[in-house]
Amino acid sequence: MRLSCCLLYIALACLSAVAADLAPTGTLRAAFLNGNPVQGTVDPKTGEISGPVADIVKELARRAGVPYTITPSNGAKDLIERLNNHTFDIGLLAYEAERSRQVDYSGPYLLMGSTYLVSSSSQIKTAADADRPGVKIGAVDGNAPTIYLQQHLKNAKVILWKAAPSYEEMIKMFANGEVDAYAGNRSRLVEAAERYPALRVAQDNFTVLEQNIVVSKGDSVKLKIVNDFLNEARSGTFLKDMLVSAKLAGVEAPKPDYAVQR
Q1: How many domains, the chain?
Q2: Which of 21, 70, 170, 242 is buried deepest, with most CB atoms within 10 A?
């Protein structure tokens, strides 16, 4: 009886320590980029949040024995600033080298394909087709796919937008030659092409980006808790089940032996 009580006490003490390190206010406060289905989706009628962020945060909170909140964030800059100001405890964010100097990254929870959206009549069939002289590619400034293109395109020109235009506007831009393609994550672009017959998605990706969990810079204890969870999740079915539930296109769960691309 005494042994059982001791073991229970130790377990509760460990749980309390994890909760204190992961959620110092007593509630796990998480954020994700609003409008990115690879991270999460907000129901426009109910405000309910679903997708990877909901599954991951719920499980982390359950393990720590704390309640949780999830907040849509308006861009990576906002998420990073609020994370380092300790308004959030964790966030979901695609890996990018400059961002990694501001926050600390876990290993990936998903691998996201990045590709092009084009007019259905476009001659651009593959990612390589887009990197040619005279091709103009629209992209949102500061987004991970945009940063990748700025660093790797050899011939095409990137046209930077502060925010993505509506798909109706984009169709007009393609028609008048203002841009020839739009760069973004495959999951989002596949959704657009399914809704608009005048649009099509390139056959392949120009890159595959990691989607990760981030913590404030230098918070090694919290980062270890997150990485321990993700290491376990990659070895089991948690991430694959999450993908099936979210019905995401162009996204895959990293394998247990996945080598971090940094």
Answers
A1: 2
A2: 170
